[in-house]
Amino acid sequence: MVTGAPQTMRERREELTPMLAQYVDVAERYDDCVVLFRVGDFYKAFCEAADEVARICELTRIEREDSTGTYTACGVPVDNAPKYLRRLLDADYRVAVADQVEDAEQASGLVDRAVTQVLTPGTVVEEELLDEGSSTYVACVARDPGGGAAGDGPDEYGVAYVDVSTGECAVTGGDAAVVDEELARVAPAELLVGPAVPGGVADATDCMVTERDPEEFAPDAARDTLADYGGADRFAPAERVAAGALLRYAEYTQGDDGTLEYVRRVRRYDPRRSLRLDATALRGLELFENHADSGRTLFDTLDETRSALGRRRLRAWLRRPLVDRERIAARHDAVAAFADRTLVREDVREALASAYDLERLVGRISRGRATARDLRSLHDTLAAVPAMREALAGVDALGEVRAALDPLDDLRSLIDEAVVADPPQELTDGGVIRAGYDAELDEIRTTAREGREWVADLEASERERTGIDNLEVGYNSVHGYYIEVTNGQLEKVPDDYTRRQTLKNSERFYTPELKRREDEILGAEERADALEYDLFVDLRDAVAAESDRIGDLADAVARLDALAALATVAVERDYTRPEMGADGVHLDRSRHPVVEETAAEFVPNDAALSRGTVALITGPNMSGKSTYMRQVAIAVVLAQAGSFVPADAARLPVVDRVFTRVGASDDIAGGESTFMREMRELTDVLCDATPDSLVVLDEVGRGTATTDGRAIARAAVEFLHDESGATTLFATHYHGLTDLADEYDRVVNRHFAATERDGDVTFLHRIREGAAAASYGVEVAELAGVPDSVVTRAHDLVAADRDGDTAGSAPDGAQRTLDEVATNGHGRAPDAANAARSATAASDDAVADLLADLRGYHLAETTPLEALNALHDLQRRAEDAASDADAGGERP
Length: 892
Fold this sequence. Notes:
CATH class of the largest domain: Alpha Beta
Shape: elongated
Number of domains: 6
Protein name: DNA mismatch repair protein MutS
Structural class: alpha/beta
Distance between the termini: 77 Å
Number of strands: 26
CATH topology of the largest domain: Rossmann fold
Helix content: 40-55%
GO molecular function: ATP binding; damaged DNA binding
Function: This protein is involved in the repair of mismatches in DNA. It is possible that it carries out the mismatch recognition step. This protein has a weak ATPase activity.
CATH architecture of the largest domain: 3-Layer(aba) Sandwich
Strand content: 15-25%
Radius of gyration: 37 Å
Largest sheet: 6 strands, mixed
Strand order of the largest sheet: 3-4-2-1-5-6
CATH superfamily of the largest domain: P-loop containing nucleotide triphosphate hydrolases
Number of helices: 29
Pfam family, one: MutS_V
Organism: Halobaculum lipolyticum
Oligomer: single chain
């Protein structure tokens, strides 16, 4: 990667033209960046930098030659710059944009240029480069400066992050585990790493890592920087260093005159005051990322927001669910208020659709980069606030957020009085300030307008005075106003005409009065443009001075939108309000919120786990074990985020952490196999889980030898029961573990049932008490298209293994249903006794299914014809169950 001043230019500095010397000076000050240098309508790069930019952006390089020699250059069109800037950022380049900060027409000699911004993946502020519904963070990790070199002293770190586009900034501190967890939650686009921070921190992040001079992390420098952001005394040493270094870097990226005045304060937070979700849990529960074909995440399912503000707030709530019961109840109250009042909810959502991104608007305004259209967007958002307040009148549960909806009437009136309703995109185009806002501007405009009206009438009067019928009056930017006469009519030109320009077929003239009017018009327009610019800048500064009030309003609108979105989801998808504070997890007919949207048919299931219970879940592959465990954990996360949950009823505890170990992953580049990664994740669970935690473990120990894996799984279950006391869902194919339910009072067996008929397996996707002994792995292989010869041989090997070694079978007394039938070949019973047991198990299972469906039948919602059809189906199934029982020698 080539950055800094091009080597070939540095070597020839004394020979360079003034413009190229200016480019080298800028490139040396920003030596960690590719410099794009504004030249006319292009941003240009030169020499080695041009080679890199041309390669990344797929641009044509050109060879330039001047008095100093030949050099390479390439240009990015200013009007289409975001497209190319995105490519450079995606390639992990930092880009310093050097703009012309002086009017080229007024410059005496070389036009002055300065870096107006440094673009990096974590500090972009341009709308075209941002995802409107997500935050873009740059984060910083620093070690306690009093802790000595890496490996010495206490391992205390500070983690700070800032969204430069909105001004959100926060910091926390803790050990290495807190660092990993917070970086996973924040998911920064860029990371600064301080001195003495272990290299593994940077390796664990999937983002651009930026190196800074160690002096940037000096405690004194941090204290000086934080003085402008509320002071440094609120923070621990490592937090102070992280926040100070981060803010200095953010200021640096805003260019030579960079400022972050819109960062109102640096918020210090304690990770323990929210439900802690580490990277493994975020990935395992697919909250924000889903690598399956559907690509749907939990956030996608919940996102019924109407504004970018609400979308980011909902995402933040899901990243940091609450642990305070009162705050959780307050959110549930607000969601319930919206859910119960359809008209209120729809009126608010309609008003929210008019809300622009206030956080990013105030950021652009405070940075002095807002356009007239930005101010009108702010005005239009403020204009929608009264409708929100009116809709919420009398809704007690939403009273707090209603009170925070300050319509900022004074600011809205000021913008409306000053800026036209549909301003031009560019301020330099003029016509931004309304008539009547400034008397001086009105007077200047009147002068210019009267002059143009005089010119407009001149053509007719001159034709009459001179008798030249085809005489025309016109204007161009080079020669100004003129009177054009064709060559055939030149003898009629009066004496007071002065020649201005000669064309092929005509001559152009001016008169003393036309010249006077021209000077008057152009002078008035120039003065009007200058005054209009000054008036707009003053207006923008006045709005920026109210950034705190705008920020408070943005917070209220974001909360309102997120709450309304959760209520919309609850109503449209039949979610229920959870009762919080229960002694364990209790869900009636719970559902997975993402899977139920994409599956053709979803089977709800109950969950009943007392506090500290370890539920061993067995059953066939593809029966729904992983989905079930995820949906239980997701119900807890949703409830504590403030959402209703997909279930008929929910009584849930307030947990401190959710741990997951679901699915397989590896880090081959980092030297970790799938099993090693699994063991590291298991280590985190066993070391950090508490009696207030929820643990979800899937197939622990499957990545090694069966004996070792089964031993690890059994020991983990015993540890969770005896040591951590966490409420646990533990799915396994080690059926020998199910005897733990007989040895430990808080270990219970649950299984997912399946039925088999003529060698065909049907997964019922229903969870039941007791243990299963068959996983139907061979049958699943057959469904996947494994060759018949492999399937046949596998069946034979399974049968032989069962005949010779029953170590992995279910314990005596375990519930025996059809999913436990031992098979030989393709479902052939080895003897009559086994056949009888199979038939009896089938009957028991079928009867249980029949009774469950009968209890869940909604007779009041059924037509007579539907009832008759249902009764016929139930009768047929009862007869089939009786036949199966007869085959086994007994009746149900």
